């Protein structure tokens, strides 16, 4: 048997969702009901399912990657099972080879007849796995398969819908406060504008119905959930619902005191600093931060950073020199 990764067409670094998508895509294409004129369809589908059984099980996948089992899921050196007939059989080990700790059968057989895919002899941990996937696949194969199964992967004969997706959208801190339109890129490649309300906190979710992943079986598409994320800001550092910023403090004001202008998300405000304010002193501006629960707002913490004049000041230099020499 070929390498399971080659059969599914995925890289060895593929994660479980990628493996699942590859299997569903190929299973719909290779299922015997969709290839009734191809005598090799059953064997190809059996090979596909065997590859999926190994790669979808983290324990088996690890054993295969380490060379402990072969591409059929058998321990290296194992000769296989005798017999033949229609369909295919695969044995695998879960807590013992052949039977589980309670003596239950843990071999699986799959065959294809007038009633479609049938499974027998599965172990106690297999519920909801292969059967659910096959149900989804048969639901997308048209009237014949659907008529035999009766349902197409859900109660009431509903065709499985596409998957939901989350789309994180970076939003400027100003837009978080004011609200307004943001551009969202959807899985189908389209770009739409979504209006966010004013004063939304990071993690706020908005549902776009029917804008998620398409259904591989012809059902309704899933939904897209736009999740608000704070974009980096050149002035502010985010700490929960609070903001921090550094404010240049002229040396003269640090000595004599006075008013400095502090940036906020809604414009600059004046802050009075007392005389002899050291660099690093922090002032709290209540309610000037980011949205919190129950319509409350975080705070803005402004830290003073003493700045020398941009141009050299001879008088200041002379004053500092006399003070250093002790002459004043």
UniProtKB/TrEMBL annotation:
The record's section on Gene3D superfamilies has: DnaJ domain, Urease metallochaperone UreE, N-terminal domain
* GO cellular component terms attached to this protein's record: cytoplasm
Q: Which UniProt keyword terms apply here?
A: Chaperone
InterPro entries in the record = DnaJ_C, DnaJ_domain, DnaJ_domain_CS, HSP40/DnaJ_pept-bd, J_dom_sf
Single biological process term from Gene Ontology: protein refolding
Could you name the domain of life of the organism this protein comes from?
Bacteria
One Pfam match: DnaJ_C
Q: Where is the J domain?
A: 3-68
Q: Name one GO molecular function term.
A: unfolded protein binding
CDD domains linked to this entry: DnaJ, DnaJ_C
Q: Where is this region: Disordered?
A: 144-163
Task: Answer yes or no on keyword Disulfide bond.
Answer: no
Which PANTHER family does the entry mention? DNAJ HOMOLOG 1, MITOCHONDRIAL-RELATED
Q: What is this protein called?
A: J domain-containing protein
Q: Which organism is it from?
A: Ancylobacter pratisalsi
């Amino acid at each position: 048997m070929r390498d399971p990764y080659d059969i599914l067409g995925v890289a060895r670094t593929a994660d479980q969702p990628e493996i699942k998508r590859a299997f569903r895509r190929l299973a719909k294409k290779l299922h015997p009901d969709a290839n009734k004129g191809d005598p090799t369809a059953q064997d190809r589908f059996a090979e596909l399912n065997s590859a999926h059984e190994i790669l979808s099980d983290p324990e088996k996948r690890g054993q295969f990657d380490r060379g402990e089992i072969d591409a059929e899921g058998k321990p290296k050196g194992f000769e296989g099972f005798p017999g033949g007939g229609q369909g295919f059989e695969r044995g695998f080990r879960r807590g013992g080879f052949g039977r589980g700790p309670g003596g239950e059968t843990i071999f699986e057989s799959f065959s294809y007849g007038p009633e479609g895919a049938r499974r027998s002899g599965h172990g106690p941990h297999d519920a909801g796995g292969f059967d659910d996937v096959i149900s989804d696949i048969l639901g997308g194969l048209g009237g014949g398969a659907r008529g035999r199964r009766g349902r197409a992967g859900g109660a009431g004969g509903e065709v499985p819908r596409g998957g939901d997706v989350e789309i994180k959208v970076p939003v400027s801190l100003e837009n978080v406060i004011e609200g307004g339109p943001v551009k969202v890129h959807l899985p189908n490649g389209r770009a739409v504008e979504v209006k966010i309300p004013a004063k939304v906190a990071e993690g706020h979710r908005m549902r776009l119905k029917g804008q998620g992943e398409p259904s591989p079986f012809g059902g309704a598409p899933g939904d897209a959930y736009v999740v608000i994320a704070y974009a980096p800001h050149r002035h502010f550092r985010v700490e929960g619902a609070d903001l921090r910023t550094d404010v240049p403090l002229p040396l003269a004001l640090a000595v004599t005191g006075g008013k400095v202008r502090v940036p906020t998300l809604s414009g600059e405000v004046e802050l009075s600093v007392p005389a002899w304010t050291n660099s690093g002193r922090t002032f709290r501006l209540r309610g000037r931060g980011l949205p919190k629960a129950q319509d409350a707002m975080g705070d803005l913490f402004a830290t003073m950073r003493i700045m020398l004049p941009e141009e050299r000041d001879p008088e200041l230099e002379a004053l500092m020199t006399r003070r250093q020499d002790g002459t004043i």
